[in-house]
Amino acid sequence: MAGNVSEVVADLYHPLAHELQVDPRGPSTGDSVVVRGGCWGHSVPQLLAISCREKRGLDFPSDRVGFRIALSPNH
């Protein structure tokens, strides 16, 4: 699925700590979201990686960013 569009994830943006973290959660309020992964518009290899993490404003329109609908396994 990499390479189509970057994905908006559920976390609001916050700088990550330098130590290893497993599924760090963002703040409960904020004005920026986390966008993960590469898209068709990136030409720099580092930006194409699934691990790529970018900060985007809530009102930033883009044809290179999307979201994935998923159902929780508890439902």
| Shape descriptor | globular
Strand content: 25-35%
Oligomer: single chain
Query: In total, how many beta strands?
Result: 4
Task: Describe this protein's structure.
The chain has one helix spanning 45-48, and strands spanning 6-12, 32-36, 53-57, 65-66. With 75 residues, the chain is mainly beta. It has a domain at 1-16 and 30-61. The chain has a four-stranded mixed β-sheet with strand order 3-2-1-4, with no helix packed on it. The longest helix has 4 residues, at 45-48. It is globular, with a radius of gyration of 13 Å. The two termini are 24 Å apart.
Break the fold down into its secondary structure elements and pairings.
Layout (H helix, E strand, L loop, with lengths): L5 E7 L19 E5 L8 H4 L4 E5 L7 E2 L9
Parallel strand pairs: 1-4
Antiparallel strand pairs: 1-2, 2-3
Keywords, separated by commas or semicolons:
75 residues, mainly beta
In short:
By secondary structure, the protein is mostly beta strands. It is 5% helix and 25% strand.
